[in-house]
Amino acid sequence: MRMLDIIAKKRQGLKHTDQELAFVVKAASDPKAGVPDYQLTAWLMAVCCRGMDEAETAALTRAMALSGRRLDLKRLRAPKVDKHSTGGVGDGISLALAPLMAAAGLAVPMMSGRGLGHTGGTLDKLESMKGFRVRMGIDEITSQLARIGVCMFGQTQDLAPADRTLYSLRDASSTVESVPLVVASILSKKFAEDLDALVLDVKIGSGAIFKNPAEAQALSRALVKTARKLGLRSVAVLTSMDQPLGRYVGNALEVVQAVEVLRGDFTSADYAECLLTLGGWMMHLGGKAKDPEEGAARLKEVIRSGAALERFQKMIEAHGADPRAASDLDLLPKAAMTREIPAPRSGYISWLDARKVGEAAVILGAGRANKDSVLDYGAGFILDRKVGSKVKKGDCVARVHGSDAARMDEATAYFLTGLRVEGQKPKPIPVIRQVVK
Ligand code: URA
């Protein structure tokens, strides 16, 4: 079999056999296979343009899932349940959700990623806490899960290695937006976690991979169907990513958001709703609640009792960070400067574009402009007003946190291109759009 023939076949829109897909996955996971990156990238582009059917998607996912090692969590008694988001802006839900679910009796092995384009990455947010270690071996992950029920770690050489290669090539070749590639990428990682169930948070809107609802729905259906074929119980919750989630965008700033909600402060109502809905489904799929509503109510109790914040503290300590950061937010990195962004006119905020805010955060250094960029952990935005808020000209809409005045000017100007203030009160944007089972 030759990679060149496989590329040509997909370029012509033909269907791959399981053996051809296994060949591509071997090429992506084993450098000794000798297939150069440019051929893998050409194949990714062919898939992006020509697509794959359900059977091909399942075969690719299975081959990628089996490309590396798998955690063996059979000896854990707690149900093993995880959540995966397709990525957004201000979407630091995992930081609060993972310890919350562990405090509620689930085991959460959460393999996470870094920021991609304008979207933030859980690993970067965690590493904003000094000393937080995400590079862990399989034995360490397993023993931490047995001890405290939660572990948040990065992909290693041996966990889903094919995805590691393909994901970085996709990021650099404009081939991220492909339903079969996203399905195989997400589920191959989740399969390696040896889960009982999975909740998928599929974002829709300007800041999401797929902006249009029909594509996000197609992705949700494909994820749930393919997960079932792998023997994994799942639901997909479609959630809004038209404006950033919550009030904080940035790395350390999103840790602040997580701690606030774990302390029982639900001021960021959209963030709290998303957290409790996804968590409610995890409780239900994990057999801890008769339905997601009961699950969400139980989680509120866990937060009120203080157990969720305590588990967050234990988790960050286990990963090597200072546990006092959970009670003393001043221990988190801070930007050198803050400035206000004033409302350009009076009226109602009718649009606050998630993608533009995410891109403005990259300008500040909260995300990577290229692979080698060094992150500014304290940089980002605090959003004082969101869509629907009434403002007077000059009122503070958001605060910019940064360390470089020129970048702050540029980020502010860019942020403003995503902000609309109009005379009429806009319709509220629902956070939870649909559940696909
Ligand atoms: N998240 C992933 O893990 N993979 C994708 O392809 C997109 C989002």
Approximately how much helix is present in the residues? 40-55%
* CA distance, first residue to last residue: 38 Å
Query: How many domain regions?
Result: 3
Structural category is alpha/beta
Looking at CATH, the homologous superfamily of the largest domain is: Nucleoside phosphorylase/phosphoribosyltransferase catalytic domain
Q: According to CATH, what is the class of the largest domain?
A: Alpha Beta
User: And the CATH topology of the largest domain?
Assistant: Pyrimidine Nucleoside Phosphorylase, Chain A, domain 2
CATH architecture verdict of the largest domain:
3-Layer(aba) Sandwich
Count all strands and give the number: 13
Major sheet attributes: 4 strands, mixed
Percent in strands: 15-25%
Note the overall shape: globular
Main-sheet strand order equals 1-4-5-13
Question: What is the CA-atom radius of gyration, in angstroms?
Answer: 21 Å
Number of helices: 16
Q: Can you list the ligands bound to this structure?
A: uracil
Order of helix and strand elements from N to C terminus:
HHHHEHEHHEHHEHEEHHHHEEHEEEHEE
Stretches with pLDDT under 50, minimum 5 residues: none
Averaged pLDDT, please? 95
